[in-house]
Amino acid sequence: MMTEARDRTTPVADGLDGWIAGARDRAVRAGEPDWALERRRAAAAGVARLPFPDRGTELWRRTDFGALALAELDPWRAALPVGELGGLPGEIVSRLDGDAARSGIVVQRGGAVAFEQTPAALTAQGVVVCSMERALREHAAALEGRLHALIETDLDRYAALQQAMRSGGAFVSVPDGVRLEQPIRIVHWLDPDPPVGSGAGPAVFAGTVVVLGRGAQATVLEECLSPPAAGAAFFAGGTEVFVGPEAKLVYGHLQDWGRNVFHYSNQRARIERGGELQWIQTFLGGRMTKTNSYFRMAGAGARAYVHGFMFGDQRQHFDLHTLQRHLAEQTTSDLHIRSVLKDRAHSVYQGMIQVSPGAQRTDAYQANRNLLLSPTARADSIPGLEILANDVRCTHGATVGTVDEEQMYYLTTRGLPRNDAQRLVVEGFFAPVLDRIPLESVREQLDGVIQAKIG
């Protein structure tokens, strides 16, 4: 069978039609409402029509998934549900801090949710934290008009495939005026080894929706984790966030896959009048990552503060595309992405600030800072502006450089070995992002990964 790794220009009979038919059959048996099945059908038509993106596509000019033989993977791998948190892999349990008993939790293993928890105190406030499958049975009205509403089905073939194949994922809903103290945790986990007798790695297509009502406040952390493995794996995620009027959401997306994982995701957020989004994004693991994160300031006074970092080593490749879209007056966005690269790692950052007509008094900022620790590392930075209003303040900037030798000289002349001095410089470079992560335990875990990458 020819895989898309060999033919990436035309949609061919590459086995994906069987995947899509199987996903629809499973959705029907699970009781998905008609409107959700119709969205799957429309996405399947997109898969049949669209080619896989290649370097001839603007957003894929510097990234190529050609080494991914997608049709050779297994989209049906999923662990059995567990009733207690302790039944999950130890790596997941250790990630969830001591307050886990009071937190809403959804854990996905492979293609299905294996554990979900909503404490009674949250249920009493009307908070919903559950798998997407259960949400489509029990909260379909709340999801209609939101699931697959912000992510363009025809963005590319991977986006269409994610929507047609969607399995697992989470639904989080916080009612008007409810303010949560404990963070909600969403974990995506890929088990390291294929089932006995199967050499196929997993292909996962998760979809998550988060909705905050008027004046609500919450923190949601979504983590992508897996141990090292030999065979290729693929994760395609879709995250759609709706921040209501005067609501405030802190959202952290933390990616630390094993080095065998190809990661593709689309993330969208819509912020209504007076709402605020604090978005934190980190890329540490995986073989190759392509993420499109778009933020829509839809109501007057909406605010989005986006902070993220990438740390690549060996031959890791990270590609992040952001869009700060201002649709109403007096809106604010502040984006700051940092990357540190060593060995032959490669990062791509492409960003755009769009200011629509009528979005007067917009205040938007976009910065990308890159630190190279090796002469063979590479960082591409392409910031941009598209302004259609005349009373705005919009700035952007990008830098690519090496470790400041004056800083290194200062530290080494005070007794620090060069590697320790470099570690301090890198830690200081990442500090503005790490300091914004709301859980100390998560900050410590990320810091440990950073330390290991520095060596």
What is the domain tally? 1
Instruction: Tell me, rounded to a whole number, the average pLDDT.
Output: 91
Largest sheet: 10 strands, mixed
Number of helices: 10
Report the span from N to C terminus.
42 Å
Strand order of the largest sheet: 2-1-5-7-9-11-13-15-17-20
Topology pattern, helix = H, strand = E: HHHEEHEHHHEEEEEEEEEEEEEEEEEHHH
Q: Could you name the ranges where pLDDT drops below 50 across 5 or more consecutive residues? A: 1-13
Q: Could you say which overall geometry the principal axes of the C-alpha atoms support?
A: globular
β-sheet strand percentage: 35-45%
Number of strands: 20
Question: What's the Cα radius of gyration?
Answer: 21 Å
Query: Helices and strands: which structural class?
Result: alpha/beta
As a percent range, the share of helical residues equals: 10-25%
Give a brief outline of the structure.
This protein is α/β, with parallel strands linked by helices.
Describe, in plain words, how this protein is organized in 3D.
The chain has 455 residues and is of the alpha/beta class. The chain has one domain (16-454). Helix content is 22%, strand content 36%. The protein is built from ten helices and 20 strands. It has helices at 16-29, 34-49, 90-95, 120-124, 132-138, 140-143, 157-165, 405-412, 418-434, 440-454, and strands spanning 105-109, 112-117, 128-131, 170-174, 184-189, 203-212, 217-225, 233-243, 248-256, 261-271, 276-283, 288-297, 303-312, 317-326, 332-341, 346-355, 363-372, 378-382, 385-387, 393-402. It has a ten-stranded mixed β-sheet, with helices on one face. Strands 3, 4, 6, 8, 10, 12, 14, 16, 18 and 19 form a ten-stranded mixed β-sheet that branches. Helix 8 crosses helix 9 (418-434) and helix 9 packs antiparallel against helix 10 (440-454). The longest helix has 17 residues, at 418-434.
